[in-house]
Amino acid sequence: MKIIVLVKQVPDTWGERSLDSATGALDRSAPDNIIDEISDRSLEVALRHKDETGAEVIVLTMGPASAAVALRHCLAMGADSAVHVLDDALAGADVTWTSSVLAAAITHEGFDMVIAGNESTDGRGGVIPAMVAEHLSVPHLTSLSEVHIAVDVVNGSRETDYGTLTVTARLPAIVSVTEQSPDARFPSFKGLLKAKKKPLATLSLSDLSINPETSFGSTGRSTITTVTRRPARTAGIKIVDSGNAGVELAEFLAAGRFV
Amino acid sequence: MSTALTLIEVSPSGEIRGSAKMLLAAATRLGTPVAVLSTTPGDHSEHVKQLGDLGAHHVFIAESTQTDSLLATPAVESLAAAFSHFETSAAVLVTNSVEGREIAGRLAVRIGGGLTIDAIDITLVNDRVVARNSVFGGAFDVESSIHGGPAVITLRQGSIDEEVTAHTPDLITITLSLTSVAAATITSRTEAPTDSGRPDLRGAATVVSGGRGVGSKEDFLLVEQLADALGAAVGASRAAVDAGYITHSLQVGQTGTIVSPQLYIALGISGAIQHLAGMQTAKVIVAVNKDPDAPIFDFTDFGIVGDIFTVIPQTIEALHRFRH
Ligand SMILES: Cc1cc2nc3c(=O)[nH]c(=O)nc-3n(C[C@H](O)[C@H](O)[C@H](O)COP(=O)(O)OP(=O)(O)OC[C@H]3O[C@@H](n4cnc5c(N)ncnc54)[C@H](O)[C@@H]3O)c2cc1C
Ligand SMILES: Nc1ncnc2c1ncn2[C@@H]1O[C@H](COP(=O)(O)O)[C@@H](O)[C@H]1O
């Protein structure tokens, strides 16, 4: 079985994340860029299946040159090979572009199953897996807290805003996992050494036979027109409990008409 | 005038979900509002009346016996069918839920539309749909517009609340064929229990959340008691969810639900940046934490350095006293 894992590099959520107020683009220089935690978990799901069955695991990202670091990390964790879609024309790509490019790269590699994160911590769109599935005309089985992969079928439990579903689909299909799925393994020292020798292919848009003008010319696109930074919050009253703070809190709530 | 399509959510037991009101009100701002219902065959006259009361000018019903057993795709097919029926739709509006986003995503690919996710406001400016988003946990407000194709937008639940005039809608009913679609099959479903009697976390005016400082599943009762004394929803930090004190669906933050209530009370929560990302746009923030240096205090309107197990029971008792 050939599994492609979609991984993404994002600004570390521990740092202050910022948008360029002129272009609305993510300011990628501000905090450190790291592999998204959910990408680590997605890869873990694939690697567990590889441990059991010897499946082939390919990691794929579309992103700037720095994203290669995330791919090396995935190779060190145990992925067999990596693919990096890198092209200056993709700067500022929205979900429409991103999903078509990822779908083209997936088709280029060939696959039985794709595993993604349910949503990324920067965009929080949570749409790429379903959009890629539509491009590829395969089912999407998304937001899974548990995944079971068999020879030609995948099933799992899906968390939604209204409850839990158990879902199943024949392969090929796209799966996305939530942060309820298991923690990822750490790359071992041996893994780090091995990673250096594993293949990391870089593909440009022309390698994928995509010409932005003709390929995306007739689709809608969302562009940012204004960006405003909200004023920062300021701290208000702070008291130290000396025996009566609970009552003072009740009075504060009553004064604010919250009772 | 062009139309604006809305995807009406229906519960498995057949009730129109609360999001319909917001979607139809938003659609009214953009064009002639159309309610699209993806459902199993049956008598929908009650639904049609209800949607008319919420402002729909047209109700488009796409029926299939498979609607309840396939994931998301029936709704995509229904919207695509409505989109070609109404030829001039400027926008398609869907609720920003796990499923809603995916439906919107697949539809955008299908109809060559542009996509905006999680809008908190939309307006029509010079015939173009402009959407407002709040990103990075409310640190930035971003406006965007869609051009070059139809606009597909998911709207954050509870973001638009206005009254619109009731109508007696036109009805169009079609039968969907779903035999050849690429879709996952739903083999069983468990509806989230709604019998807690508490308001839904997402739209609640007051939220009381507990963190790792609560210490145990049993002691989480304290958080629930304060919530009930205030008629509030219950929330939690990821540490509390990971420790098993409470279900994941109540997690507030970066990777949980984003809330924007009038009042947010954080109990035993340190205020990690990923938690703040889910609640920092609350109007009033209160925190009780025994660590005077907890980062949450930089964001609170009323902060108490103290032990939740002494402070909160006292608060609950005082609240009851005020009532009587
Ligand atoms: C990619 C990513 C996504 C994340 N997403 C989220 C998210 O969506 N939501 C989220 O919440 N976190 C998220 N986190 C985790 C986040 O970084 C923190 O680990 C988490 O918010 C900490 O939860 P906490 O405040 O309950 O626990 P802690 O940080 O351990 O804080 C517990 C607090 O309780 C106080 N305390 C202890 N006992 C008492 C007592 N008796 N009375 C009063 N105070 C007491 C302590 O002083 C301490 O400040 C995410 C992290 C990452 C990396
Ligand atoms: N640029 C990208 N490269 C590779 N995978 C991506 C990219 N963007 C999104 N994804 C995948 O889609 C998932 C959900 O992302 P999003 O839809 O952006 O919230 C991520 O966890 C990744 O698996």
Automatic annotation (TrEMBL), chain A:
* Pfam entry (one): ETF
For activity, the cofactor(s) needed are: FAD
The record's listing under SMART domains reads: ETF
Q: Which SUPFAM superfamilies match?
A: Adenine nucleotide alpha hydrolases-like
What does the record give as the function of this protein?
Answer: The electron transfer flavoprotein serves as a specific electron acceptor for other dehydrogenases. It transfers the electrons to the main respiratory chain via ETF-ubiquinone oxidoreductase (ETF dehydrogenase).
User: What does the subunit section of this Swiss-Prot or TrEMBL entry state?
Assistant: Heterodimer of an alpha and a beta subunit.
Family statement drawn from the similarity comment of this UniProt entry: Belongs to the ETF beta-subunit/FixA family.
What is the protein name for this chain?
Answer: Electron transfer flavoprotein subunit beta
Which source organism? Answer: Cryobacterium gelidum
